Amino acid sequence: MNQKKQVFIESIEQKTLVDKVEHNLVELLQKQQLRVGDAIPKEIELCTMLGVSRTVVREAILRLRMMGLIDTKKKKGSVITSPDLFGILSKSMNPHILDPDTLKEVFEIRLVLEIGMADLLFYRITKEDIADLRNIVGNEPSGTQYHIFNIDHEIAFHGRLYEITGNETLKKFQKMLLPVFDYVHNSGLLKKTAMLKTFISHNELIDILEHGTPEQFRNGMRAHLENHFSRLFEQ
Asked: Does domain 17-83 fall into CATH 1.10.10.10?
């Protein structure tokens, strides 16, 4: 009885030559310890170093330029730049093009940041900041501790908290996360908890900021976000 011969097919290399050169180029620039503003080697030099054609090098450099890692300056050629991380990230931080698992994980990141900002808040908050927060809460309708989420209230109150931290990167990140947070809340990706618990209100969080400790604020914010955590874990 004839037996069929087993044929082994080698897997195809997924990376293109440009992909490899892009990776090697980044490694090369790191090894040369170039800093922001330093010129990178000329194209012809890179061709020799990497052993590829000028066309491939140009394509790899174009990718790095699109990523914001390098820029072209008069009389200097291509130089190292400090990339606009959030400008790049914001182009893909669209809730309508992210898969459900990624959306839920972004939702989780926002919760972690809210709890983790306690020490920065207590280190930098002023009496004027407390007054601003009181004014924001004064414009909210009564009984907000019974409402799991309101985008306008979230932007006003939590956005002000991020400003108080004094961390510009954190503020930019929060602005990108909030639309995703709102989308996930309303999308049906999370369990619709039937019995919502009364949670700590914005006003109570301000009381902790004014008279409490970072640890008390972390616990208070965790309680403030309790219903969101319940919707994540009670699947």
From this structure: yes
